[in-house]
UniProtKB/TrEMBL annotation:
PROSITE patterns: DH_2. Keywords: Guanine-nucleotide releasing factor. It comes from Globodera pallida (Potato cyst nematode worm). This is DH domain-containing protein. Residues 184-376 form the DH domain. Pfam families: RhoGEF, SOS1_NGEF_PH.
Length: 514
């Protein structure tokens, strides 16, 4: 069997499977991540929708394809580039990449979009090569380029969303597409505001019934109080008194709601601490019988719980098991992401690019929170760093590379961390678990130029601008050339952006190196 036929059959099986998954989700009524909180708030699905308490996902009419079935279009693109992949080694042809669908057409802004920005059609299927930076994902449909992460959705969620239409009143259906998009954006904002009110009410329930009860808890429970209550009190105050007020301020101007999240960026760091410790709190509850007994007693003894069958429940008034409240924060962060993508989509349709760009930055902030919550696993295992690790900030990227230093002919494996304006080279010790990373060297990006090697295209060259500093050649350890090239593109893109932001002297031209 020739390679083209084999590749074609692989693609057919791959996308038949995507259709099957989407169909199964549609039959099961799955509504995606955005319903994780509000699905438990509702007293009846119809009433909850009318009150705006349940998040919704984009509609089929909102996800129009400009040129037929995106699966067929993608399949055609794959056949067109088969001539290029035919010459590749078999190992490279069988790379497993994440597949996403564009929920909105993307037209790069001249002078503002990054180099190699990639225009997309709405409904176009792409394979995502790198999505570690929400501001720009590396995709190939089939050519390779950069697209903001807010333009993509997973296939299963994309097709599920087609069943969940944002309906307009009958007298609004004859409006222009831009007018309809404006009304639908207002619907999204209304649901964002209503679910925020319900979310804050749930946090107050937790504070009133559980957190205050810890004052009278047995000693064997009180010793775990900090690990169990986390910073719920601070988060309750933030969402009740700050976040809600910020959203309400933009009730008459929902297109600018992204400013609320950007203005409160530092406050959202409180959520990182909670997301980081949720798993540990769940583990304590699962393993400690005294804690289980205490929490169950609170849940079962409160009068309102006994009244559930006799009174009509309202969103936010029900008492849940404590484990539910621990999951509120990560669930709410995922809801924000869904809402932001919709607001961006409708802002683009009504040609409000500035609002869309601001919302894109807010989305990047929200998407970074779960990632930053996991960074502690690396930073706490960084050893021998001569300065304050706490001042390094967030980790933008981390990966294993082969590194050549100055004129040394032999390379050494270095695990590299990319911080803002800094690249830290470390020696990874896999003998311990989790592995530790011993500091080797740190490069300040404003003191280096970075270029792509002229002959080794998957290699980056870091040349110092000051005497006495070493030159580094950095190359991914991946065995296949395509993976090394993806890594080089992604790292160089982020470094270029950082150096531009801090006034560094980035040079992306190729350079000859020995």
């Amino acid at each position: 069997m020739d390679r083209i036929t084999r590749k074609q059959r692989q693609l057919e099986r791959k996308y038949d499977n995507l259709r099957r998954i989407a169909a199964e989700e549609q039959r099961s009524g799955s509504r995606g991540l955005a319903t994780s909180l509000s699905g438990q708030l509702r007293s009846g699905s119809g009433q909850a929708h009318n009150k705006g308490l349940l998040p919704r996902t984009p509609s089929s009419s909102d996800a129009r394809s400009s040129s037929g079935d995106p699966i067929k279009r993608y399949h055609q693109n794959q056949q067109q580039q088969q001539q290029k992949t035919d010459a590749m080694p078999a190992m490279e042809q069988h790379r497993s990449l994440s597949v996403f669908i564009a929920i909105q057409a993307y037209v790069p802004e001249p002078g503002k979009a990054p180099e190699e920005a990639l225009p997309l059609e709405q409904g176009q299927i792409v394979e995502v090569l790198d999505n570690k930076n929400a501001a720009h994902w590396l995709a190939q449909p089939p050519q390779t380029g950069w697209v903001p992460g807010s333009y993509f959705e997973t296939p299963s969620k994309y097709y599920t969303q087609q069943k969940n239409t944002r309906e307009l009143a009958a007298d609004k259906r004859n409006l222009s597409e831009q007018q309809q998009a404006l009304l639908k954006r207002e619907q999204v904002f209304h649901e964002l505001l209503c679910t925020e009110e319900a979310f804050a009410a749930q946090l107050r329930n937790c504070l009133q019934h559980y957190l205050e009860a810890f004052d009278a808890a047995p000693e064997e429970v009180r010793e775990h109080r900090q690990q169990l209550t986390l910073n719920m009190r601070e988060l309750c105050n933030f969402h009740t008194n700050v976040m809600l007020n910020g959203l309400q301020y933009y009730s008459d101007d929902p297109g600018n709601v992204g400013q609320t999240f950007l203005r409160l960026e530092r406050d959202f760091e409180q959520h990182i601490a909670t997301m980081r410790e949720v798993e540990n709190a769940q583990r304590i509850i699962a393993e400690n019988s005294a804690v289980q007994t205490f929490l169950e007693a609170i849940y079962k003894s409160l009068p309102i719980h006994k009244m559930f069958k006799n009174v009509k429940s309202t969103a936010g008034s029900e008492l849940k098991e404590y484990i539910y409240y621990l999951e509120l924060i990560p669930n709410r962060i995922r809801q924000y992401e869904d809402y932001f993508k919709e607001i961006i989509k409708y802002s683009m349709r009504i040609q409000q690019q500035q609002n869309a760009n601001m919302m894109q930055k807010a989305l990047e902030l929200i998407q970074s929170l779960p990632i930053r919550a996991q960074e502690i696993e690396f930073t706490k295992n960084l050893l021998d760093y001569p300065e304050d690790i706490g001042q390094l900030g967030r980790i933008y990227r981390h990966e294993l590379f082969n590194v050549w230093e100055d004129d040394v002919q032999e390379s050494a494996e270095r695990y590299i961390f990319l911080f803002r304006n800094k690249m830290m080279l470390t020696d990874r010790d896999m003998k311990s678990y989790p592995p530790v990373f011993r500091h080797y060297s740190t490069m300040r990006l404003d003191k280096y130029t970075v270029r792509q090697h002229s002959r080794e295209e998957d290699t980056m060259v870091f040349r110092p601008e000051e005497p006495g500093l070493p030159t580094f050649l950095v190359k991914s350890v991946h065995s296949d050339a395509q993976s090394r090239e993806f890594v080089r593109k992604a790292w160089l893109r982020d470094i270029v952006d950082m150096q531009a932001a801090i006034g560094g002297s980035t040079e992306e031209e190729n350079v000859e190196e020995g």
